[in-house]
Specification:
single chain, alpha/beta, Rossmann fold, seven-stranded parallel beta sheet, three-stranded mixed beta sheet, 12 strands, binds nicotinamide-adenine-dinucleotide
């Protein structure tokens, strides 16, 4: 199949593009290299796939008017391009989120309609739930995002569902729960924690460290995407979580063991927009997609530690 991956220079998009190429698909990657974090890391993400004969990359912004004239037509779209990050989404910066996450999605959906795309898989987020009414949270539970980022991801979900209904394109939405592993964004907790620990610098933790998260290893998140290529019910939302809900303090202990030395921790105030807990009920994804996360937190963290060491030469 010919597949477009938006945000293909990013953390998850590049890993997904790589797997799709391994599976024998033709992959069109596009990314605007948003400056939220250094371009160097995104170029590094692309290194492993750039020379693949079935991969073509376009440095393009979704909100560029001429997108449809530049990109080759495709059968399937994985839509991962977005301005990520909860903390930066307040204040004036929200216009970046509104443009890239909401407007960008609507422009892509119009294009998909004109291309007669068969399937779109949208990268949504656990942040659409906010502080959930119960844990583990189910897909039909109330949605009360507590950050402007979460609102932008929910708005894009609504657009995907709407265009799916009105165009007949089969649209699936995957709500990822904190994805980690090699290539993770530098603003995300594990990446920051490991880098600081290896540099013998204090690890900054927002809050008391007792907050919990359902962490998902990158290759398991990618597998869910590949399963969603053919399986799954059109118009449906799926929770994608690794299934091991642990506290940040537990993760810090594990990092200490993996790197084999003492770490310094500096607890700071909680940041507005961070939820206290996340935990995914993945029954629907298991039943419909065959989702079956394989990587334990310890193994996944070990792999991210190796990657951080190599990337920063630490
Ligand atoms: N990483 C996670 O834990 C997580 C959790 C939930 C949801 N998500 C979602 O998954 C997707 C990928 O996240 P990630 O962590 O890989 O982020 P990332 O920032 O590494 O990747 C996103 C990429 O999209 C590109 N992009 C943004 N706006 C664009 C536009 N208008 N046109 C073209 N390219 C654009 C950016 O340059 C970036 O390279 C995002 O949609 C994010 O909201 C991620």
């Amino acid at each position: 199949m010919k597949i477009l991956v938006t945000g293909s220079a990013g953390f998850i998009g590049s890993a997904l593009a790589s797997r799709l190429l391994e599976l024998g698909h033709v992959v069109i990657g596009m990314d605007s290299f948003l400056d939220y974090y250094p371009r160097k890391q995104k170029e590094n993400n692309l290194k492993k796939i750039n020379n693949h004969s079935s991969f073509k990359f376009y440095e393009k912004n979704l909100i560029d008017a001429d997108l449809g004239e530049v990109l080759p037509k495709v059968d399937v779209i994985y839509h991962l391009a977005a301005q990520a990050g909860v903390r930066a989404s307040w204040g004036k910066e929200f216009s970046i989120y509104a443009d890239n996450n909401i407007l960008g999605t609507q422009i892509l959906l119009e294009l998909a309609q004109s291309w007669k795309v068969k399937r779109i898989v949208y990268a949504s987020s656990s942040s659409v739930y906010g502080n959930a009414v119960r844990y583990p949270v189910k897909e039909d539970d109330p949605l009360h995002p507590v950050s402007p980022y979460g609102v932008s991801k929910l708005a894009a979900e609504h657009l995907c569902a709407l265009y799916g209904q009105s165009t007949g394109i089969s649209v699936l939405m995957l709500r990822y729960f904190t994805v980690y592993g090699p290539g993770q964004r530098p603003d995300m907790a594990f990446h920051r924690f490991i880098r600081s620990a290896l540099r013998d610098e204090p690890i900054v933790v927002y809050g008391d460290g007792k907050q919990t998260r359902d962490f998902t290893f990158i290759e398991d998140a990618v597998s869910a995407n590949c399963q969603a290529l053919e399986k799954g019910k059109p118009g449906t939302v799926y929770n994608i979580g690794g299934g091991e809900r642990v506290s940040i303090n537990f993760v810090l202990d594990m990092i200490k063991k993996i790197i084999g030395r003492e770490i310094k921790i500096e607890y700071q105030d909680t940041v507005k927009g961070d939820v206290r807990h996340t935990s995914a009920d993945t029954t629907r994804a298991r039943n419909d997609l065959g989702f079956d996360p394989k990587t334990t937190l310890e193994d996944g963290l070990q792999k991210e530690v190796e990657w951080v060491k190599e990337f920063y030469r630490l």
